[in-house]
Design brief:
The complex is a heterodimer of chains A (248) and B (220). Helices cover 36% and strands 26% of the residues of chain A. Chain A is α/β, with parallel strands linked by helices and 248 residues long. Chain A has one domain: 3-Layer(aba) Sandwich (Rossmann fold), CATH 3.40.50.300. In chain A, strands 6-7-8-3-9-10 form a 6-stranded mixed beta sheet, with helices on both faces. A 4-stranded antiparallel beta sheet of chain A has the order 2-1-4-5, covered by helices on one side. Chain B is an all-alpha fold and 220 residues long. Chain B is built from 6 helices and 2 strands, in the order ααααααββ. In chain B, helix 3 packs antiparallel against helix 6 and helix 4 runs antiparallel to helix 5. Classes of the chains: A alpha/beta (248), B mainly alpha (220).
Chain lengths: 248, 220
C-alpha cells in the first residue's frame, strides 16, 4: 500500500526523520512504537501530508501510495486525505449532531441525497460498532457521547469517506480500559477491509492488534518486522531494550 | 536508576529458586542410585521425603512465573526466560520423581540378595547424572554449546538401555537372573533413560530461551 524510500523530515534545522525506508502492506495492521519524540507520529502524519500544515516542515525522499508519490506536485491532497483517513489521540467530534458528524465528509464532497447520506451514516456507524448505541438518537449532539463513543464516532466519520488506509495516532490513550477494548476489537475487525497504521505507547496493545511493528528511535526506523518477531525475539538490541522496558 | 527493577529482582529470585530445586533434584538422583547400589533402605526413605520439597519448589516457582506474567507482562528475552523456566521445572520435577521411583525400588528389593548395579546400568547412570548436571549448568550460564553437547549424549543412554534390555531378555531365557530382581533392574534402567530424556528437554528449553527455537522449530 505504502512504499517509502529514503524519506527524511526536517522541522527547520531539526531532523525529525532520517532516511526512512519501509513498505506497508495492504489490509494489515502496522504499529509504530518508540519513545516520545522518536518521530513515529511525525512519520504517521507524513503519510497523509498532515505535515504540510507545519510551515517549517521539509520532506525529502519518496512516499508512494499504490505506486504514486504523494509528494508529487500533481498529487491531489484532498484526494489523498480521502484515501488516507486519520483518527487522533483525543476524540474530536464536531459540535453538531451524531448524524452530521458522520456525513460531514461526504456532504463536503457534494453528496446531497438524504437517503444516500442516511445509508452512508448507517453503514459507517455499523462498521464502527456504534450503530446499536446511537441509532435511536442520531440527531442528538455528538458532545453528549462518552469518550469511547466519541472516538468510535470519529472512526465512523473517517469510514464514511470510504478510505483505503486509516491512520490512528494513539487512538486509545484518552480512553478507559473498556472503551480501549472496544476500539481494539474494532481495529481487528476493520483490518479485513482497510489498511491500518497505528501509533501507540502501549506495548501490549501493539502486540495484541498489529501484524507488523516498526520501532523508531531518534528519528530512525530501527527495526520493522512481524509483530510476533519484534515482541519475542527482536533482531536489534535497541528494540529489545525498549520493549523490555530497559531503555533510559 | 535501573529500569524494571522489580522485574529484574523477580527474575533473579526465580533463578535462585530454580537453582535450589536443581540442587535438590541432583542430590536425589545421585543418592537414589547410590542407595539402590548399596541397598540402603534408610537413604531411600529419606529421598522420598525430600521429593516432597522438590514438588513444593515446583509449585512455588510456577506461582512466581504466573505472577511475573500477569503483573509485569514480560516481553522478548524476559518472556522467553520465564516461559522457558515454567517448562523446564516440569522436567526437573520429573527427574525428581524418577529418583523417588528408584528409591521405591530400593525399598521393594531390600530383601533381595542380588548384585545391585551391573556395569551397563552404572555406565547409564554416570552419563545421565552428568547430563542433568550439564543441563542445569547450561541453563545457568546460557551455554547453548554445552546444551547441544548434552543433547547428543542422550543417544548413548538410549543405546545402553537397548543393550541392557537385550541382555535382560537373554538372561531371562537362560534363567541366569532372578526374574523378580531382573524386572526391577530393568525398571531402574528405564528410569535412568527417562532422566536422560528430561535432561535433554532442559537443554532444549535453554536453547529456546536463548534463540527462540525449540527443537529447531521457531516458536516465534
Amino acid at each position: 500500500m505504502f512504499k517509502v524510500e529514503n524519506m527524511s523530515l526536517h522541522y527547520g534545522e531539526k531532523m525529525a526523520l532520517d532516511n526512512i525506508n519501509i513498505e506497508i502492506k495492504e489490509k494489515e495492521v502496522t504499529a509504530f512504537i518508540g519513545p516520545s519524540g522518536c518521530g513515529k507520529s511525525s512519520f504517521l502524519r507524513s503519510l497523509n501530508r498532515m505535515n504540510d500544515l507545519i510551515e517549517e516542515a521539509k520532506i525529502e525522499g519518496i512516499v508512494k501510495l499504490k505506486g504514486e508519490n504523494i509528494y508529487d506536485k500533481k498529487y491531489d491532497v484532498i484526494d489523498l486525505r480521502t484515501k488516507v483517513g486519520m483518527v487522533f489521540q483525543s476524540p474530536n467530534p464536531f459540535p453538531m449532531s451524531i448524524f452530521e458528524n458522520v456525513v460531514y465528509g461526504p456532504k463536503r464532497q457534494g453528496v446531497r441525497n438524504k437517503k444516500t447520506l442516511r445509508e452512508i451514516a448507517e453503514k459507517a456507524l455499523k462498521q464502527a460498532a456504534l450503530w446499536e448505541e446511537v441509532s435511536s438518537r442520531l440527531n442528538e449532539s455528538a458532545m453528549k457521547l462518552s469518550g469511547g463513543q466519541q472516538q468510535r464516532l470519529c472512526i465512523a466519520r473517517t469510514l464514511a469517506m470510504e478510505p483505503e488506509v486509516i491512520l490512528m495516532d494513539e487512538p486509545t490513550s484518552a480512553l478507559d480500559p473498556i472503551a480501549t477494548q472496544k476500539i481494539e476489537d474494532l481495529i481487528r475487525e476493520l483490518k479485513n477491509d482497510y489498511t491500518i497504521i497505528i501509533v501507540t505507547h502501549n506495548m501490549q496493545q501493539a502486540a495484541r492488534i498489529s501484524d507488523k511493528t516498526a520501532f523508531f528511535y531518534m528519528g530512525e526506523l530501527i527495526e520493522f518486522d512481524k509483530t510476533t518477531k519484534i515482541f519475542n525475539k527482536p533482531k536489534y538490541d535497541q528494540t529489545e531494550k525498549y520493549i523490555t522496558g530497559r531503555f533510559g | 536508576m535501573v529500569l524494571r527493577k522489580w522485574l529484574e529482582l523477580a527474575i533473579e529470585e526465580l533463578k535462585k529458586d530454580v537453582n535450589k530445586m536443581a540442587t535438590l533434584v541432583i542430590k536425589n538422583i545421585t543418592d537414589s542410585l547410590k542407595a539402590f547400589e548399596e541397598n540402603n533402605l534408610e537413604e531411600a526413605l529419606e529421598i522420598k521425603k525430600r521429593d516432597v520439597e522438590v514438588d513444593k519448589l515446583e509449585d512455588e516457582i510456577s506461582k512466581k512465573v504466573l505472577e511475573i506474567i500477569w503483573k509485569e507482562q514480560p516481553l522478548a528475552s524476559d518472556l522467553r526466560l520465564v516461559t522457558g523456566i515454567y517448562k523446564l521445572i516440569t522436567d526437573l520435577e520429573r527427574i525428581g520423581d524418577h529418583a523417588t521411583d528408584i528409591a521405591n525400588i530400593t525399598i521393594k528389593t531390600a530383601e533381595l540378595d542380588h548384585q545391585r548395579l551391573i556395569p551397563i546400568t552404572t555406565q547409564m547412570a554416570t552419563i545421565a547424572k552428568e547430563m542433568v548436571l550439564n543441563s542445569v549448568d547450561a541453563f545457568f550460564t546460557f551455554d547453548v554449546s554445552l546444551a547441544e553437547k548434552t543433547i547428543k549424549k542422550d543417544d548413548e543412554v538410549d543405546a545402553l538401555f537397548d543393550k541392557v534390555t537385550n541382555l535382560a531378555i537373554a538372561e531371562f531365557k537362560e534363567e541366569e537372573i532372578d526374574a523378580e530382581f531382573g524386572v526391577y533392574l530393568l525398571f531402574v534402567a528405564k528410569y535412568i533413560e527417562r532422566i536422560a530424556d528430561h535432561a535433554t528437554n532442559i537443554c532444549e528449553w535453554l536453547i529456546y530461551i536463548v534463540s527462540g527455537k525449540h527443537r529447531e522449530v521457531s516458536l516465534i
